[in-house]
Amino acid sequence: MIDAHVHVWRIGANGCTWPTAELTAIHRDFDLDDYRAIARGIDGVILVQSQENAIDTDWLLDLAAQDAFVAGVVGWCDLHASNAAERITELSARPKLRGLRPMVQDRAADWYDDPALDAAFAVMTTAGLVLEALVRPQHLPALARLAQRHPDLRIVVDHAGKPDLGALGAWSEALRTLAAFPKTWCKLSGLLNEVVAGQEDARIAEIVAAVQAAFGPDRILWGSDWPVLHLAASHAEWLAKARDLVPVVQHRAVFRETAAFVYGLAA
Which residues form the Amidohydrolase-related domain (predicted)? Predict the structure, then answer.
């Protein structure tokens, strides 16, 4: 089983400025040994950046080079920087870099429409890197337009696009529009942090059903979003819930094969 969304950090080191102190449940160092202590049945992880800092990405890649448990890294790069193409090329030479994640969730809805980004997206496509999309529902239309402009760029939507529980219809429609582009995938991760306590089962089931209807059985992958997950549940609780919601016949794809395909890993 591959956990396609795991974070590690050291508070105050490697460019780490988040989580802040008020998030007491996760305001401490988390490393791969901490993850191994709580995860069961996982034989590989994708480490995903948590800081908008090149030092964080370099540190994750150094960890990955030393630990076979890390199957790949999704790092960060300032795609607006004048040297973005050079930095992407440099990072792509690191064997376990699999993608890049600009942190768009709090940026303008049309962020992906900026033509100044197209050169970076082109270099990512040539390098075979995944664009990891940390977005909210308002960003999905621009992400679809990006998929149209760069049809060979692989795009993975994190946390199912952080659906707005008050507007699931609009989110679902935008997700279906994006899913019409064949090189887009959706990650079942971070969902428990998006729902109201006490409504988890019904709302998560509704969200997962919409993702399944949009992307089908072969373009969905699972991630824990550990340790951010601790704000809502344990790793075991989220894994069990996800396994219940995904039909058994799809387990191998959702919990291993799709991640292996998208990130170019050995299945």
Answer: 2-265
